[in-house]
Specification:
Blueprint: E1 2-6, H1 11-21, E2 26-31, E3 52-55, H2 61-67, E4 73-76, H3 90-111, E5 115-121, E6 130-132, E7 136-138, E8 164-165, H4 179-198, E9 201-207, E10 209-211, H5 224-233, E11 239-240, E12 247-248, E13 250-252, H6 253-265, E14 271-277, E15 283-284, H7 285-295, E16 302-303, H8 320-326, H9 334-341
Parallel strand pairs: 1-2, 1-4, 2-3, 4-5, 5-9, 9-14, 10-13, 11-16
Antiparallel strand pairs: 6-7, 6-8, 12-15
Helix pairs in contact: 1-6, 3-4, 5-7, 7-9
């Protein structure tokens, strides 16, 4: 199978290309090498890539028309990730993520490419869902101070009791809290429209908190694992917002690459199929900070008590559908993965790294 991987020189793209070539597939990598997430490489080629690299923008329709006729499937990873700095980033995110996806899908329709794997995000669920002992399953209310009664846990809007987090399934209604999350949900809708009109198959994979080798370093577009590692490398203690007990699912990039491969190789299926891609073993943000601090022999994390009202308290989803539909199961343990990540090579960027939004 010949696969075009957009964002193929990026974090997940690099590992996905390796997973596919190891199985004998041919890959073509398309990447704009944007400075926000890439350094300036000699000869415009990262040294760690497998496959042919085309440096170009996924919004370039003429370029796509040259690349797609010989392609059997597309793994669409190209996107600006993370939260950015503020709402001034909104047009940039929409341009990269949504216009880019629309341009790609239109070109796939012209070329008759029938299979798509789309990288989405757990962020589309927003606050997710929770359970009240008396009032059952319900969406947590917005995490404004008046809804928290002096703590950090979301409370039942009916009785004020603390809500317990519930694993999110793919049927949980989406309610994005950030520009990034909104653009990922828009990508999903565009992919669904493409699949219904063309008769193609779109596998939408909602990644959890991905970490691992070649992750971008501490920029406004990095994940919390890279931020903590950068602080420890500089001799500083990781700073935990709130009380550090926010639940997250940290999934290794090799497991995410395996999920992409499984979706691309899956026989049968039509229309749109959506899957949570997670480890299935949630940990707190404090667990992450302490694991990295111990592995790097660094200072203990510091709890700041700062409320991050724009981030959900707990984000834990069930990977059961991915297990049943794709045969996916995470193989990288949290302990081993964090030990490796503490010394793994990361990827620099050439862009600015100002700003520090909440990280969790």
């Amino acid at each position: 199978m010949r696969v075009l991987i957009t964002g193929g020189a990026g974090f997940v793209g690099t590992h996905t290309a390796g997973a596919l070539t190891a199985r004998g597939h041919e890959v073509v990598l398309l990447d704009a090498l944007v400075p926000e997430v890439h350094p300036r490489y000699p000869d415009d080629r990262p040294p760690y890539l497998d496959g042919d690299l085309v440096v170009g923008d996924v919004r370039d329709a003429a370029l796509l028309d040259r690349l797609l006729p010989d392609v059997d499937a597309v793994c669409h990873l190209a996107a600006l990730a993370g939260l950015g700095v503020d709402l001034a980033d909104m047009p940039v995110y929409v341009g990269y993520n949504d216009l880019g996806t629309a341009t790609l899908l239109a070109a796939m329709a012209r070329a008759g490419v029938p299979r798509l794997v789309l990288a989405s995000s757990i962020a589309v669920y927003g606050e997710g869902r929770a359970r009240c002992a008396d009032h059952g399953l319900l969406p947590p209310p917005p995490r404004r101070p008046e809804n928290l009664a002096g703590g950090f846990e979301p409370r039942c809007p009916h009785c004020g009791a603390e809500l317990a987090p519930e694993p999110i399934t793919e049927d949980t209604p989406a309610e994005p809290l950030s520009t990034y999350a909104a653009t990922k949900l828009a990508q999903e809708h565009l992919a669904g429209a493409w699949a219904r009109v063309t008769g193609g198959t779109a596998h939408i994979l909602r990644y959890h908190h991905v970490y691992g080798p070649l992750m971008p370093r501490d920029t406004p577009y990095s994940g919390v694992a890279a931020v903590f590692r950068a602080e420890l490398a500089a001799g500083r203690a990781p700073r935990l917002y709130e009380d550090g007990r926010q639940l997250r699912d940290f999934v290794h990039v090799r497991d995410v690459a395996a999920a992409n491969r499984l979706a691309l190789e899956r026989d049968g299926g039509t229309g749109v199929e959506t899957y949570n891609i997670a480890s299935g073993e949630p940990h707190t943000v404090a667990d992450l900070a302490y694991a990295l601090s111990g592995a790097m022999d660094g200072p203990e994390p510091v709890v700041t008590g700062r409320l991050c009202a724009d981030r959900p308290r707990h984000v834990v989803a069930s990977p059961a559908r991915a297990r049943d539909g794709l045969g996916y199961a995470a193989t990288e343990s949290f302990a081993a993965g964090m030990k490796e990540f503490a010394t793994a090579p990361l990827r620099d960027s050439a862009g600015p790294a100002e700003g520090r939004p909440c990280r969790s």
